[in-house]
Amino acid sequence: MRNSYDKVTGLLCLSLAGTAVMPLGGCQQKKEEIKPMNILYIMCDDHSYQTLSAYDNRFINTPNIDRIAADGLRFTNSFVANSISGPSRACMLTGKHSLANGFTDNKSSFDGSQQTYPKLLQAQGYETAVIGKWHLTSEPTGFNHWDILIGQGDYYNPTFIRNGEKVQRKGYATNVTTDLALEWLENGRDSSKPFCLLLHHKAPHRTWMPDTCDLDLFSDAEFPLPETFYDNYEGRPAAQGQRMSIDKDMDIVYDLKMADKENEIHSNPGLEQAGRAIYSRMDSAQKAAWDAHYDKVIAKFKADAPTGKQLAEWKYRQYMRDYLRVITSVDRNIGRVLDYLEAEGLMDNTLIVYTSDQGFYMGEHGWFDKRFMYEQSFRTPLLVRMPGGAKGDVDELVQNIDYAPTFLELAGVDVPEDIHGVSLLPLLKGEKWSPNRKALYYHYYEFPDEHAVRPHYGIRTERYKLIHFYGDMDVWEMYDLENDKNELNNIYNTEGTQQIADSLKSMLHELQVLYGEEEYIEK
Q1: What is the CATH number of domain 441-520?
Q2: pLDDT digits 0-9 by tens, 266-285
Q3: Which own/partner contact pairs does 141-145 have at CB distance under 8 Å and 24+ positions apart?
Q4: Which fold has domain 36-207+323-437?
Q5: Which position among 133, 401, 407, 461 has the lowest Cβ density within 10 Å, counted as fewest Cβ atoms?
Q6: What is the DSSP string of 141-179?
Q7: Rounded distance, CA 400 to CA 41, Å?
Q8: What pTM, to 2 d.p., does this model score?
Q9: Measured distance CA(127)–CA(137) in Å, rounded
Q10: Distance of CA 251 to the CA centre of its chain
Q11: 5 DSSP 8-state letter
């Protein structure tokens, strides 16, 4: 970990894990008057670390999200437990891996009767709320207030469920979600209590529909192809069988908005119909702005009539442009929230977290989407600002099961023994962190739905990754991340690697026992 712990000065008093931290120069406040720290957890859906300038400035500048990193911590080895939306959210809420919390894939329904950190905070006197995307099928529990999108939600004029009642709201989802969060912070909560707000944006989930004010951004940008864009997946049969190729599987109408008025452009029938139906949700002003941009793009696409590699690379550029436009709106709206906290004097007593429910492929291996344990989807951004806390980079291996125990310890709540994660609070305070974590465990279950990614589990150490694909195939993969950052060379069963593989398997089995997944230990 780099950089030092910043001491609090002036008249600020903090309560961490129930203990008052008294600043230099004295403080006359009594301990009982010090409020527990608020928690603002901001999570987007499918925000790749490659498109957040705190991590990577090749594609976009995200100045507002970067404010969190500039005054806090950037976690450089942050990962998820299951790279798909609903299961990832269940891991975050419970602090447990998917099999233990019962939500293994998006066909599941979250058991809201089980223990979650919002429930434990609520019992401690916190005012809790979740606003935005939920995607766990069952209704939220453990929240004083909830206002959630239905399923994946819509970008334009979305319908929410507010404490059980459906409400359609006019506008763009990212703006509306932020409006609702600010409304709750200003008028909806009991200000005498500490709050825990889960602000969950739909964006930038597929189909990456930009706000009308952002439609022309990046129009002239040319994005270099990732060096693995034309990966042939040699030695990786599971990668060969997926259906998330930009070239073959990204739909020209549904994903890339080529729904022409003349009805001459056709694609996968089901996706084309859905892509054309999305447009119908817009009002006349939204449609006018949309047409002013996309009609020109459609006309040029028809005139150029790209095929083969030219078409694949056009798809990639169009995908990147829309995706980055959506991120621009996210960044702008997070700026609104941070500005509100500053104006209301809440920054001095609010923990702020920014993350995503998983990573995302931006053309690496020729892909979009997530699911695989390869780095781009396994890894997720994590930025944390704690008042009076540490600043800089954290290089330790952390996972989204660690969020729940972190928030509980921060609030002075005993962390239940059945939680799998480990509190990150010592790292936030700039102190030594000693869970002796040598590896992270991952398990993806969903098959064959949507993208035909085979179920697999595995572990990642600082240097190596071991993956086992199972079900209709029995394939092991192993990567030396130090010498093969793109994960192209599967070294499992290659000469001289047996001892490393055996050591990794032993660690894998230990974690499977620890997390209650003994049934998946290969016989």
Answers
A1: 3.30.1120
A2: 999 999 999 999 999 999 99
A3: 141/112, 141/113, 141/116, 142/112, 142/116, 142/118, 143/118, 144/189, 144/190, 145/184, 145/188, 145/189
A4: Alkaline Phosphatase, subunit A (3.40.720)
A5: 461
A6: -S-SEEEEESTT--SBS-EEEETTEEEE--SBHHHHHHH
A7: 12
A8: 0.93
A9: 23
A10: 23
A11: B
